[in-house]
DNA sequence: TATTTGACCAAGA
DNA sequence: ATCTTGGCCAAAT
C-alpha cells in the first residue's frame, strides 16, 4: 500500500485533459467537475505545474469570458486559442457559452 | 501548526 | 459597461 491520494492539482490535470481542442472551460467549471469550489486553487495548480504539452492549460479561462493568466504570457495563450479556432475580441472570448466544455454537467 | 498566496468569482457602487 | 471589494480553497512558506 503505497499509493498516495492524488493531490487536488493532479486531479485538475486529469480533468483538464478531457477538454477537446477548440473548446474551453473555466476555472470554476473545472473545480465544479471535481466536486469542489476551489476555483482559485485550480489557478494555482495551473501556474505551478503547467505539465507543459501534456495538459492544455491554455483552454482554461475566467468565468466572465476574459482570458485569465498563463505561465508563458497571456499573448501566448491568446495565440494558442486562436490557432484552435476560439475567437477573441481583445482579452475576451466572443462566444464563451458556445465553446464551453461542461464536463458533461449541466 | 499558522500564515500567506494567488492564472478566481459574484456582487456592489 | 468598468472598477473595487470581500470571500473562497488548496498548497506553499
**Spans of at least 5 consecutive residues with low confidence:** none
Radius of gyration: 13 Å
Strand content: 5-15%
> What is the end-to-end distance?
37 Å
**Strand line-up of the largest beta sheet:** 1-2
DSSP strand count: 4
CATH class: Mainly Alpha
Percent range of helical residues: 25-40%
CATH topology: Arc Repressor Mutant, subunit A
Architecture, according to CATH? Orthogonal Bundle
Number of domains: 1
Mean pLDDT: 94
Shape: globular
Give the SSE string. Answer: HEHHEHEEH
Number of helices: 5
Report on the structure:
The chain is mainly alpha-helical. It has a single domain (8-99), classed as Winged helix-like DNA-binding domain superfamily/Winged helix DNA-binding domain (Arc Repressor Mutant, subunit A), CATH 1.10.10. The protein is 38% helix and 8% strand. The chain contains five helices and four strands; from the N terminus they run H-E-H-H-E-H-E-E-H. Strands 1-2 form a two-stranded parallel ribbon. Strands 3-4 form a two-stranded antiparallel ribbon. Helix 2 (27-33) packs across helix 3 (39-48). The longest helix has 10 residues, at 39-48. It is globular and about 50 Å long. The model has no long low-confidence stretch (mean pLDDT 94). The chain binds a DNA duplex (13 and 13 nucleotides) through helix 2, helix 3 and strand 2.
Amino acid at each position: 500500500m503505497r499509493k498516495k491520494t492524488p493531490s487536488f492539482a493532479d486531479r485538475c490535470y486529469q480533468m483538464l485533459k478531457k477538454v477537446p481542442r477548440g473548446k474551453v472551460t473555466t476555472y470554476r467549471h473545472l473545480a465544479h467537475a471535481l466536486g469542489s469550489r476551489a476555483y482559485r486553487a485550480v489557478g494555482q495548480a495551473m501556474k505551478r505545474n503547467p505539465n507543459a504539452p501534456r495538459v492544455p492549460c491554455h483552454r482554461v479561462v475566467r468565468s466572465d469570458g476574459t482570458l485569465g493568466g498563463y505561465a508563458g504570457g497571456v499573448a501566448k495563450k491568446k495565440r494558442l486559442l486562436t490557432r484552435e479556432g476560439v475567437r477573441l475580441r481583445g482579452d475576451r472570448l466572443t462566444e464563451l457559452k458556445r465553446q464551453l466544455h461542461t464536463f458533461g454537467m449541466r
